[in-house]
């Protein structure tokens, strides 16, 4: 993980820096953002799970076999749901460390961002349906998120904020 962090740090050091006040503000808000997004993500994952199981149950009650379209997106849907839950748990676990300014919380945010990036790339390349616009915006969103994450990294060191 340290190799990936160093490589990304070297990449983002070449870009313009955010103002100090902006970095501090985002770093102070990050625990609460992580908590809120984590709770909402878990709630949404639960809702998607319930709808998916309800749909599968209702569909099979009538004796229908999965159509090729549903069969193709079934595994993708379940993997997406698992990734959503993993990211939500990472955000919730990061909350206490982010509140105290520990880098371990920041590391969890980095893991979540990297998982999201890998998932976006794999999904867009291997799901059977390539949407170039979605792929480009996924990469752009990940780049912006990682830029912001590396801008606030200096605020999370040791057991207390700088």
Structure description:
This protein is an all-alpha fold. It has one domain. Helices cover 81% and strands 0% of the residues. It has 5 helices and no strands. The chain has helices spanning 2-13, 20-61, 68-99, 103-126, 132-152. The radius of gyration is 19 Å and the shape is globular. The two termini are 23 Å apart. The model is unreliable at 67-72 (pLDDT under 50).
Q: Could you outline the blueprint of secondary structure elements for this entry?
A:
Layout: H1 2-13, H2 20-61, H3 68-99, H4 103-126, H5 132-152
Helix pairs in contact: 2-3, 3-4, 4-5
Order of helices and strands: HHHHH
- In terms of structural class, how would the helical and strand content be classed? mainly alpha
How would you sum up the major sheet? none
Number of domains: 1
Instruction: Please work out how many helical segments DSSP would assign.
Output: 5
Helix content: over 70%
Oligomer: single chain
Strand residues, percent: under 5%
Whole-Å distance between the termini?
23 Å
Query: How many whole angstroms does the radius of gyration measure?
Result: 19 Å
User: What's the pLDDT, averaged over the residues?
Assistant: 83
The poorly predicted ranges are: 67-72
SS elements, strand count:
0
The general outline is globular
